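Exercise 7 asks you to align residues with tokens for two separate proteins.
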Amino acid sequence: MQLVKTRLDRDARRELILDVAQEVFLEEGFANASMSTIAARLGGSKGTLYNYFKSKDDLFIAYVERRCLWQQDEVLALKPGEAPAQALQRIARSFLAHVVNETTVRNFRLIVAEAERTPQIGRMFYEAGPQRGTERLAEFLVSLDAAGALDLEDDPLGAAQHFLGLVQSPTFKGRLCNAIADLTGRQIDEEAARGVRAFLRAYGPRT
């Protein structure tokens, strides 16, 4: 039991470090953020920090990986009594709400900026986040195709890419460039519904 408790305590401490690191990275950017600043905000020493992460790069990579895992917590499956179109609307709304969220946008800016200096960080983020998320969506769309609710024309990955593009294209770049304000719940609903309608016109079952 003591070993389990020790492991849980260590995991909780690691999560706290990542929480604080996120705050510092977002406030100061990767280049200006320091292990000393993170340690001071934690109320500990740099030595304690290095017990968990060998370098600032390792800490940043762990932070990016955690952001990707959070993004993929959505359940891509039909809920009891839910029609396929309703499921697509639910997924589209959840995806768009996440993508245009202020924290997500700030994280994306930070990761893209750092990717030029450290390409492996950008590659790791892409593979664990956008790429894997699109693949998971494609798997879900295949199940709808098999049920006769969609016609993917033997290209589920392409269909998933089109779905996400239709949902995010009208607003994501504006949010990324800080050119438009955060969307209201109503705007998210409307944009998600518009994307789903266009997707179903392209990939709905052939009559």
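Second protein for Exercise 7:
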Amino acid sequence: MSSPLPSSTPAPAPAATASVLDLASVVPVVVVEDAADAVPLARALVAGGLPAIEVTLRTPAARDALRAIAAEVPDAVVGAGTVITPGQVREVVAAGARFLVSPGWTDVLLESMRASGVPFLPGVSTVSEVVALLERGVREMKFFPARAAGGTAYLKAIAGPLPQARFCPTGGIGPDSAPDYLALPNVACVGGSWMLPADAVAARDWARVERLARAAADLSAGGAAR
């Protein structure tokens, strides 16, 4: 993981983003191995109709990638995923992240994300975690790992007793299952990386990424990718 951002190169202040869940029906979950790929990759996603981009903090290149997208792709709404510490919250917001996504949450992490001033999606996989977040005034959440944690059946089951909670499921979702999630009343969007196949990224085939992004953007509740 890269070192903290140098104070001499502050990122431009991000524009306000009211809710992560309302940005797009599909949020690409991006793992960047080479920061040089970040800008063309983001431009391909935006051109395909997917402006909300989650850059996960899983590689040493992640922070540089996030910073580059924030600075050079103004039509992208770039956020940071796999955020698990208050230090990471501060670093990625300084780099230009306009939303935050965590795989889980603690009170310390939650308060740090809340204090950041940008929208955030804390991760949940149990009813108790959902109820605990509702008690703390948080209604928008990431459901992770979606398929392993029960998938659409689980989310459908908790929609009745917990209608105030809204979710972005991620984890094991593809173009065939995404419409089933989007058809649920408590699901506003889904996250996934199927529009970023490893071979296309390795070949820097951004035209293919754009085509797959466009197909993902065309997904609708009960429909299928064209």
